[in-house]
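Q: I'm a student working through a structural biology exercise. My instructor gave each of us a protein and asked us to get a predicted structure, then write a short paragraph describing it. Mine is Histone-lysine N-methyltransferase ASHR2. I'm not confident about reading structure output yet, so if you can add a plain explanation after the tokens, that would really help. Here is the sequence I was given:
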Amino acid sequence: MSSSQPNQTGPTPPPLVRPVEIPGRGRALVASGPIKPGQVVLTDSPLLLYPSSLASLPSFCSRCFRVLPSQPLPCSSCHVALFCSVRCLSLSHPPLLCHALPSLLSVPSSSPDLLFLLSAYSLPSSSVLQLLSLHSYSNLPNELTQTLHSQLCSLIPPNLIPMNFSHETTASLVLKEKVNSFCLMNPRSGTNGDVEEMGVRAFGIYPSASLFNHDCLPNVCRFDYIDDPNRENNTEFTIRALHEIAEGSEVCISYVRVRRGYRVRQRMLMEYYGFRCECDRCKIESQWKENQGDEEVGGDENGEEEMEEMEGENVEEGEEDVEGEMEMTEEEDDMDFPHQYFFLRYVCECGGTLAPLPPSHGGVPSDLMECNVCGTVKKDEFGSTGGA
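A: Happy to help. First, here is the predicted structure for Histone-lysine N-methyltransferase ASHR2. I'll explain a few features afterward.
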């Protein structure tokens, strides 16, 4: 996507969100003052970036994760990682991951958790402590963390073992990653109107953005411009308001694609984040006939595929797939469903979320809407950008 944001000049404005504790929801971000449609609520840089898989290495820069040029620059140490520029080559990639990559190539199915852990343990101790301070909700099976730690021990030579290296730290790091990682998606492309499946090129830990709680009708959404050649900090996240947000209101993203149906949303949120959503939208949709019953909220046969759609905290939109998307029957359409307006105004045809471009320097809201998945910019058909 190309950037549509104006250059910021003058003194740094006060933050538009502030952290609070909300009973039943834990840490959250609320508006510290009135927020206008399209206003940039938060810009966040990653504490850590790491490849989604070994298969992504030949296609994306191992430093900035842009699409590689036709003649990339190889890492002089591991000869596996590739870089898009001399600058990225000089900045390199996580040293423990660099050391382990030649060995990992002999096991192409290596767990993404290993790539994360090798990258996380390469951080300075202060950054590891910051990562460990993030929220997590449950424990992993001890056998899994023991296996991961044993694999790390075989990959990291004694002279490179970090000071904080232990089985307990490994288990804690994996827990933090599970609920705080965001996906950086592959470029979206297609021909004749067909949209190819989007995959994940990399994952990132964004400490400030991880404070956003979930709502199935979010009032902000995430934009990234990772392949923008004009952005030096191309891995920054920008969180923009969809509509007006009153002072003191909680500011929320959606952890899943908003077009997902009620049962699928609940299953994904429970499986990946450990909670059942009770937002206003879920309370209404839970009363629909098709959502009545005793279906257990739990695992999913397509967990790996659906994980690519987590906004993770995450990615709110993934591949163009209609399975599990919300469809209202005539009976439900006749019910009081005040959220229809949200889908008409803020959901793109591709399944992404539409948000107004940032207001002008004079504070006038834009009448152009941008999709955070396909990058389409179109005129707001609803005119004035008020609340949802």
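A: Here are two points you could use in your paragraph. The mean pLDDT is 83. The two ends are 25 Å apart (CA to CA). It's a good idea to check both against the output above yourself.
Q: Great, thank you!
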